[in-house]
Amino acid sequence: xxxxxxxxxxxxxxxxxxxxxxxxxxxxxxxxxxxxxxxxxxxxxxxxxxxxxxxxxxxxxxxxxxxxxxxxxxxxxxxxxxxxxxxxxxxxxxxxxxxxxxxxxxxxxxxxxxxxxxxxxxxxxxxxxxxxxxxxxxxxxxxxxxxxxxxxxxxxxxxxxxxxxxxxxxxxxxxxxxxxxxxxxxxxxxxxxxxxxxxxxxxxxxxxxxxxxxxxxxxxxxxxxxxxxxxxxxxxxxxxxxxxxxxxxxxxxxxxxxxxxxxx
Length: 264
Prior knowledge:
Blueprint: H1 2-5, H2 8-38, E1 50-51, E2 70-77, E3 83-90, E4 93-104, E5 111-119, H3 122-137, E6 142-150, H4 171-177, E7 189-193, H5 216-263
Parallel strand pairs: 1-2, 5-7
Antiparallel strand pairs: 2-4, 2-6, 3-4, 4-5, 6-7
Helix pairs in contact: 2-5
């Protein structure tokens, strides 16, 4: 095998196979670089407070770019539409949110839920709810600065629970609780206030995680190119082996013919 491999024709064939394998390796590297390039995270300035009008509009789905964005919004709180939302986790503790109805005045008009704070017990939540409603009756605009999040899905209450109990900030559920709210515009998301109302704790609302995923199709193509490169070298080895076996067979046939001729 070694002598066959060192013959000029097979040395040239090996160089050709290595050249093909190198070309396939370059293609594999290119596919991997494409996968990594497409996996780069596009940084979003979610911690820069922006006016709500620049982020979302009412009666439209929440875009990915708006999710988790810190916003500022002005509007009037609607008395009687404040509700408690139970089962909300805040830094590992389960408790209650107080969610109010804000009618936006400094952007496209529409109803916007705002979570005004968290508390570990229901009694405190009810007290804060009453205070928010009392402040709403006095009128006047308020400004809320916080993180905008998309509407959550409603959860079906247990059989023995109040059918109006809320465990999520579901806009579709809230507009059925808000008094006299019919065909008016509504924002399909809510804001968690950075500064809680008196008696409540601030809601823990960290910035959204920005994860990158590899393009696995490009990775698969890279593996294919590596396999093709390995196959080129294996094909050269297989051809050399076949040539060796063919020469052995020819030598054996020649020897057998010589012996037969000698006997004759």
